[in-house]
Amino acid sequence: MNLIELHSLSKIYTETASEVVAVDNLSLRVGEREFTALVGPSGCGKTTLLNLIGGLDRPTKGSVWVNGTDLSTLNDTQLVDFRLHRIGFVFQAYNLVPVLSALENTALIMELQGMGKREREKRAMELLDAVGMADKSHHRPGQLSGGQQQRVAVARALASKPSFILADEPTANLDSKNTATLLDIMLDLNRSEGTTFLFSTHDPRVVEKARRTIHLEDGRVLQDSHPV
User: Fold this and answer.
1) Domains, in order of start, for the chain
2) Which of the four pLDDT bands, split at 50, 70 and 90, describes residue 228?
3) Each residue of 110-144: pLDDT tens digit?
4) Which one of 63, 104, 172, 192 is least enclosed by Cβ atoms within 10 Å?
5) What's the CA angle centered on 206, arms 46 and 47, to 5 degrees?
């Protein structure tokens, strides 16, 4: 079953008198349980494509279908609700709330969903334990290393029980040891929980672990490979 379907998708930005084509008439499908990397040079459209799939931006042309829903049919309020319940995000800059603990950051999505305090804190602790951060649950982001913050970000992304997780350059600010730890955690979640991951990355260590690699160039799919 396809979780994500992109049909003749284009995104064009107008900058003064010129136009920048970030995504160019791109069609693509991503299925359940995939562990897929979007790769290519800077400016090839990786981040723009993730933003379109995640409903953080709207296409100029074409359509994005997620779990059988055409995102173009949703108004802004419906789109926020859809993201809240269906899609997990992991960002390069972590995007944790500085004044909240690891536990509170992880539980935040569930609070926005209306889950009761006891239930959301229980699940948040389970998720922090799954990413090896249970012993740091009461630490704020400023008390954590970059690798630890990114693991909390993964726990937060999983909190809403999303259909899939979009990760934009998740290892860009991590050293080799933390990158290996993070990738092992996400691979384990992919295999044991069936969580689908779609990455944008320059990192060869991520590409090496990916089971599918989609090479982008000038906003188009240059190559789509499924390594054994």
Assistant:
1) 2-225 (3.40.50.300)
2) very low
3) 998 888 999 999 999 999 998 889 999 999 999 99
4) 192
5) 15
Note the residue count of the chain: 228
CA distance 205 to 125: 29
- Give the Cα-Cα-Cα angle 33, 220, 25 (nearest 5 degrees): 100
- Evaluate whether 49 touches 200 at the Cβ level (below 8 Å): yes
What percent of the chain has pLDDT above 90?
Answer: 63
Question: Is the per-residue pLDDT at 163 higher than 90?
Answer: no
Alpha-carbon distances, residue 149 vs 19, 27, 68, 129, 135 (angstroms)? 37, 34, 33, 14, 13
With H, G, I as helix, E, B as strand and everything else as coil, classify residue 32: coil
* Residue (of 162, 100, 188, 173) closest to 136 by Cα position: 100
Determine contact, residues 164/4, Cβ cutoff 8 Å. Answer: yes
